[in-house]
Amino acid sequence: MSNNVRLDLFLKKSRLIKRRPLAKKMCDDGMININGRVAKAGHKLHVGDTLCVNSASRFVEVRIEEIPTGNVRKNQASELYHILKNERKQVNILDWFDDEEEDEFD
């Protein structure tokens, strides 16, 4: 029985992030923290670790309660962690555009 698991696999099994390649990319982009430090996809998680997912649309902070040893049913995924913070971010599409940029067609 394993007492730790890779971060990207935990994110997928817990359904905090739907796909493992996306979890890996988010780790590579510095969007995932463990115990206050930016974490790589291969980081081994332990019960009691604090995990933060900081995506464009939300910020989620959880405490790891259980490490999965096999497949996890959808209705059991939320038992793997305890939510400490779950905030939706307001996304303003106008922030994507920079008013100071010159038009290429002028």
From TrEMBL:
Keywords: Protein biosynthesis, RNA-binding, rRNA-binding, Stress response, tRNA-binding. Residues 5-65 form the RNA-binding S4 domain. One of its GO terms (biological process) is rescue of stalled ribosome. GO terms for molecular function: ribosomal large subunit binding; rRNA binding; tRNA binding. SUPFAM superfamilies: Alpha-L RNA-binding motif (SSF55174). The keyword rRNA-binding applies. Gene3D superfamilies: RNA-binding S4 domain (3.10.290.10). HAMAP family: RqcP (MF_00871). Key component of the ribosome quality control system (RQC), a ribosome-associated complex that mediates the extraction of incompletely synthesized nascent chains from stalled ribosomes and their subsequent degradation. RqcH recruits Ala-charged tRNA, and with RqcP directs the elongation of stalled nascent chains on 50S ribosomal subunits, leading to non-templated C-terminal alanine extensions (Ala tail). The Ala tail promotes nascent chain degradation. RqcP is associated with the translocation-like movement of the peptidyl-tRNA from the A-site into the P-site. Associates with stalled 50S ribosomal subunits. Binds to RqcH, 23S rRNA and the P-site tRNA. Does not require RqcH for association with 50S subunits. Belongs to the RqcP family. This is RQC P-site tRNA stabilizing factor. It comes from Desulfurispira natronophila. The gene is rqcP.
